[in-house]
Amino acid sequence: MTNSGDRLRALLLECALTPSDFAVQRNVSPQHVNNWFKRGIPLARLDEIADLFCVYPRWLKSGEGPKHPDPILRPRATSPAPPRQAPLLLADDGRQHHFDLQRFDSGTLQPVAAHQLSLPQRTLDALGIQHHDVLCLAMPAHNMAPVIPCNAVLAIDRNFTRVVEGEIYALLHHGRLRIHHLSLGDHGVLSLHSHDRLNYPTERFSPAQRRAQDLHILGWVFWYAHLRQRRPG
């Protein structure tokens, strides 16, 4: 691959998304997309498209470095962080908040026995999140795989429901938990995007449809992790 346009073409193939559908989604003409294939993605749209496909902007631009971000959020530090003492614990100054893992069952939250997530106060402060707004959930489906596998642990900020294009959100739809990338189009149409676009095509809901189907944004997914249960093979 010689430029970002080649990498964009490959990402579209991975997601089984046609250039024309991608053009409609990005509100550009098919000719614009063809120009991006040939000349590379415009720098002004590089971060937006990298977020959409869950890849690093540096990799998309130059092909250098890792392709996908590390799903475990780590606080920035000027010195090496001390070793983690247990899975899903992030090293910090000792101030931790503990959250019970929960699942939605028929529209109500039910705790998952003996499962708890710990997050450091410093990380919450850096993100502007109040601990009482955090909800710890289990990923309910396979639509965001392989980035977020089914049953991965999610942390949700219930105080952040404003749609920022490309970010991941938790939603309730007829009382059922859903996890998607979101984008907001003309006339308030909300689009739900999955990472696995081959098996989970984009869904769009007008404001009237959202009200009729009791679809609302629960919060922003700011942390996710998954511990493999067995070795490959």
Please specify the SSE layout and strand pairing.
Layout lengths: L3 H11 L4 H7 L4 H10 L3 H11 L3 H6 L33 E10 L2 E13 H7 L6 E5 L14 E5 L10 E6 L2 E9 L5 E4 L9 E3 L1 H6 L2 E11 L8
Parallel strand pairs: 1-3
Antiparallel strand pairs: 1-2, 3-4, 4-9, 5-6, 5-9, 6-7, 7-8
Mean model confidence by pLDDT? 82
Q: CATH superfamily name of the largest domain?
A: Umud Fragment, subunit A
Tally of separate helices: 7
Query: Structural class, judged by helices and strands?
Result: alpha+beta
**Structurally, how many domains make up the residues?**
2
CATH domain class of the largest domain: Mainly Beta
- Strand fraction equals 25-35%
Q: What is the H/E order?
A: HHHHHEEHEEEEEEHE
- What is the distance, rounded to the nearest whole angstrom, between the alpha carbons of the first and last residues? 31 Å
CATH topology of the largest domain: Umud Fragment, subunit A
Low-confidence parts, pLDDT < 50 over ≥5 residues?
70-92
Residues in helix, %: 10-25%
Please give the order of strands in the largest beta sheet.
2-1-3-4-9-5-6-7-8
- Envelope shape: globular
CATH hierarchy: architecture of the largest domain:
Ribbon
- Rg computed from alpha carbons, rounded to a whole number of angstroms: 19 Å
Main sheet summary = 9 strands, mixed
Number of strands: 9
